[in-house]
Amino acid sequence: MADIKLTREQVDQAAKEWAYALCECAGETKEYAEAFFERITSSEGVYGEFVHYMLTQDFACTYSIEGVTIVDIMVWQIDLFKAGMDTARAQRDNPDKMLLSAFVTMLDMEDDPDTVLSAYRSDTGTDYPGKY
């Protein structure tokens, strides 16, 4: 398969279209998509992870915040999801919502690492003490 080279403008346009489609599939509004895309493009690290996933459908995990990667966030969310199986959760039937949520959580972690990392490290999604 030939290597296809895209310009930065082409990548950015494809990322914008993909971000809007992801938000729509996740049940979000166009306004949410606009805000999400503006926010994600303001973060070089998260945007790089987002573009890599868009192009490969795989996580690069080259960017982390205090050692936490996008995959770590996904695993954490899945753990929380499992704990909430008996309750109504938007992510249960919508993997696009979970993917979008992981990128938003990583952006939140950049903005307020102490709060988000504290939750990440303490809220395991389990209902029994001493999991760790």
- Helical proportion, percent range: 55-70%
Task: Extract low-pLDDT stretches.
Answer: none
Number of helices: 6
Task: Write down the Rg.
Answer: 16 Å
Quaternary state of this entry equals single chain
Largest sheet: none
Strand portion: under 5%
Instruction: Classify the secondary structure makeup into a structural class.
Output: mainly alpha
The total of beta strands comes to 0
Return the domain count: 1
Distance between the amino and carboxyl termini: 46 Å
Shape: globular
Order of helices and strands: HHHHHH
Overall pLDDT level:
86
Question: In words, what does this structure look like?
Answer:
It is built from six helices and no strands. The protein has 132 residues and is mostly helical. The chain has one domain. α5 crosses α6. The longest helix is centred in the N-terminal third of the chain and has 18 residues. The chain is globular and about 45 Å long.
